[in-house]
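Below is how a single chain appears once it has passed through the pipeline. First comes the sequence as given, then the structure the pipeline wrote out for it. We keep one example in the README because the format questions we get most often are answered faster by looking than by reading.
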Amino acid sequence: MLNEIYDHAKEQMGKSIDALKRDFSTLRTGKVTTHIVDHIKVDYYGTPTALNQVGNVIVSDATTISITPWEKNLLSDIEKAIQKADIGVNPNNDGDFIKLFFPAMTSEQRQEIVKQAKSMSEKAKVAIRNIRKDANDKVKKLEKDKEISEDDSKKGQAEVQKITDAAVTQIESILAVKEADILKV
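Resulting structure:
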């Protein structure tokens, strides 16, 4: 019974950490990645569709993303979607494809992005703590229902805390790596 609770908590905490990694991939660092435009949706015949599903999105160089739509009539829709997404650059439409030129980041921009990363990691830690609370509640319920002893309940809660501490440590190390990547000039 307790092992099921531990496994479930580990799985849920792992999902929270994976979500944090996905969120971090949308943050801009020194060099541009296509993940910056992952969340942008284009109106494709009335259906909101991911940008990478309506065209080819590639990184041309360290500061440029090039978007080539599979259908030429989508150029203006893609352009509007990028402007609406407010990613900090204006799209340059040359009639065949769209280029996004990202200027070099200032130290203020880097600090602002680090703040965003810290905020994202705090949200992940809150999610981890909520998972810990749920797991501890399940352990206490087992004790209340006389399925485990008081000693086993205390051991179970200690084990849940160890799992939580490991997840929080992992979040902090991921944040440290991301922060170094953002601040690297």
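The first strand starts at residue 41 and ends at 44.

See the next section for the split statistics.
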